[in-house]
Inverse folding.
């Protein structure tokens, strides 16, 4: 369904994020017929380019990152007719009047702040000063949203000077993933799961976001941040909220975000022995973390595992185990719900121990599997095995699912539609930092040294121990 005609201004339109995600994503939505012919996209950044120069930049970005659609030159040309550029100085006056002359009245206006957060205030202020933004305008802001509670509050206050909360779209692209929304559909659209979704039936929940890459070119940013700030405070926290929240009364932005906020506020402080931090070691043919960030005395974690408890009626006593890390053996993001054993095995000890496990995979191969216990086929007597009911979207739903809308493009279309459900509200972000800050302060005060771990493995041994101590184990990374 096409969205309403819009003007989208991308501040930082020549940056890495615009090139890899935003522009190719917009092109894919255009090809899908979701973008009306009157839509206009304006890149606004520091480089001295004209419209033609920027169109070349966008064409290259599409060729490189838009997948199979990028071979359709006619479509690209048609898309580029909607693209323009204004050279702008976020901190000065250059370019703003030109931008004002390009942005049309009486349309949806969205301003994407794809720039360093230090510029958010300058841009917000100038949008107002030059009469570019009205009560109906929307702004989109990127992570990192602060580096602690104080900076997040300051950023919220800066934006609040010029925009209402209903106009601010804080992106966490994990929320734009197909599976994440499907998680809500599965939980709240079936009678099967919700009655079992609590401490009485769930033994524990694991959330893993594993990467095979290292810090890449982001060394100095990453070293000042670490896995807690870069991944856990935002992405893993959002996944935790969706898996643990109470059913909202309706699928409405504030109803959903109210429930997520309650989860964050119910998190217990984390015990120091429930925290494992690691740093990838050097290997025969690859540098270690400290070389990658060029800081031989770095104590920043590139791996983090945590055991958490949520103090509420539903989850009292059920642990949540979170882990994320770089240079691990697989690129995997998944949420695993491990149900308790059947209360009594009528098949005796020989039948082995069997459990229902629901694995919700965000990557690779978005989908879900539910392990159910059945009889091993054949004449071997009553032996039990676990088989997965596989709901890999590409298999179940055909090629359409394979080209599932990428997170960014779905979220941008939601901005144009004015739907904030999949965006973080200011109080959620602050609550997440309020939980994160004392944990970081704790390990800093203890002078905790991250454990080295082998590249291409599953993280430090202590992370295995965190589970083994409880008689549990991580699902294998694959
Ligand atoms: P980048 O450094 O590649 O691009 C920065 C952009 O900002 C450029 O277009 C530059 O011209 C513009 N810019 C800088 N100073 C300016 C000024 N004074 N006036 C006008 N324009 C100015 O950065 P990026 O990687 O695209 O990241 C942009 C934002 O998105 C950052 O907040 C980053 O943290 C966030 N982010 C990036 C990624 C990613 O994959 N690159 C992922 C998540 C979040």
């Amino acid at each position: 369904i096409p969205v309403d005609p819009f003007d989208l201004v991308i501040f930082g339109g020549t940056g890495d994020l615009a090139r890899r995600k935003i522009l190719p994503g917009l092109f894919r939505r255009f090809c899908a017929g979701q973008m009306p012919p009157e839509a206009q996209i304006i890149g606004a950044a520091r480089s001295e380019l004209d419209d033609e120069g920027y169109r070349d930049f966008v064409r290259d970005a599409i060729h490189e990152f838009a997948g199979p659609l990028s071979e359709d030159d006619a479509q690209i040309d048609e898309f580029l007719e909607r693209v323009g550029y204004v050279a702008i100085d976020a901190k000065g006056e250059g370019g703003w009047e030109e931008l004002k002359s390009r942005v049309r009245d009486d349309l949806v206006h969205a301003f994407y702040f794809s720039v360093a957060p230090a510029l958010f205030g300058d841009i917000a202020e100038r949008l107002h000063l030059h009469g570019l933004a009205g009560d109906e305008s929307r702004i989109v802001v990127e992570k990192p949203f602060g580096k602690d509670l104080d900076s997040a509050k300051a950023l919220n206050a800066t934006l609040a000077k010029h925009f209402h909360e209903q106009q601010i779209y804080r992106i966490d692209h994990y929320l734009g993933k197909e599976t994440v929304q499907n998680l809500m559909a599965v939980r709240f659209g079936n009678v099967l799961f919700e009655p079992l979704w609590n401490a009485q039936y769930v033994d524990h929940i694991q959330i893993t976001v594993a990467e095979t890459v290292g810090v890449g070119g982001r060394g100095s940013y990453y070293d000042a941040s670490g896995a807690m700030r870069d991944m856990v405070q935002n992405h893993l926290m959002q996944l935790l909220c969706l898996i643990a929240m109470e059913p909202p009364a309706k699928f409405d932005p504030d109803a959903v975000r109210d429930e997520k906020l309650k989860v964050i506020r119910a998190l217990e402080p984390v015990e120091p022995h429930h925290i494992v931090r690691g740093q990838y070691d050097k290997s025969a043919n690859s540098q270690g973390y400290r070389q990658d960030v060029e800081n031989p005395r770095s104590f920043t974690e590139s791996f983090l595992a945590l055991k958490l408890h949520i103090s509420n009626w539903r989850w009292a006593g059920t642990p949540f185990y979170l882990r994320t890390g770089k240079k691990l053996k697989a690129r995997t993001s998944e949420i695993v719900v491990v149900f308790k054993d059947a209360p009594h095995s009528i098949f005796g000890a020989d039948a082995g121990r069997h459990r229902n496990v629901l694995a919700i995979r965000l990557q690779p191969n978005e989908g879900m599997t539910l392990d159910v216990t059945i009889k091993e086929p054949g004449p071997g007597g009553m032996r039990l095995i676990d088989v997965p009911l596989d709901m890999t979207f590409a298999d179940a739903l055909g090629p359409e699912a394979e080209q599932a809308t990428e997170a960014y493009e779905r979220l941008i279309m939601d901005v144009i539609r004015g739907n904030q459900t999949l965006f973080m509200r200011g109080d959620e972000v602050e609550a997440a930092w309020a939980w994160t800050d004392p944990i970081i302060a704790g390990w800093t005060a203890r002078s905790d040294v991250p454990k080295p771990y082998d590249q291409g493995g599953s993280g430090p041994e202590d992370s295995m121990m965190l589970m083994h101590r409880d008689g549990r184990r991580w699902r294998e990374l694959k």
